[in-house]
Amino acid sequence: MRFYFDTYEGGTLVRDEEGLDVVDLAAAKLQAAKAVVDVAKDLVPKVQIGTVAIHVRDTEGRVVCTAEVNFEARSLLELAPGEIVPAYLPVESQD
């Protein structure tokens, strides 16, 4: 099956005009997940805040899945007084 992997980064969408042949939709999802991580790696050295997404289209042009990474790096020392540490950070046990 042929799928097209459009990249969205920094407000810009780059359409994949060539596409890629993969076995099925599950393989396309895996390919998109790997690709979005590779693209997002560019944000880390720049310490940029942003969203990177890969939109997977089928041969009819329908978006069939999306892989997305939202990146933000901030110091917890910059929390405002009374601001709560985000819930997704690991918390050490008090036992």
Give a written overview of the molecule:
- This protein is α+β, with helices and mostly antiparallel strands and 95 residues long.
- It has one domain.
- The protein has two helices and five strands; from the N terminus they run βββααββ.
- Strands 1, 2, 3, 4 and 5 form a five-stranded antiparallel beta sheet that branches.
- The chain is elongated and about 55 Å long.
- It starts with a strand and ends in a 24-residue tail after the last strand.
- The model has no long low-confidence stretch (mean pLDDT 82).
Q: Please state the average pLDDT score.
A: 82
Compute the separation of the termini in Å. 53 Å
Largest sheet: 5 strands, antiparallel
In terms of structural class, how would the helical and strand content be classed?
alpha+beta
Low-confidence stretches: none
What series of H and E elements makes up the topology?
EEEHHEE
In total, how many beta strands?
5
**Domains counted in the coordinates: how many?**
1
Beta-strand content? 25-35%
Rg from C-alpha positions? 18 Å
Which helices and strands appear, and what pairs or packs with what?
Layout lengths: L1 E8 L2 E3 L5 E2 L3 H16 L2 H4 L3 E8 L5 E9 L24
Antiparallel strand pairs: 1-2, 1-3, 1-4, 4-5
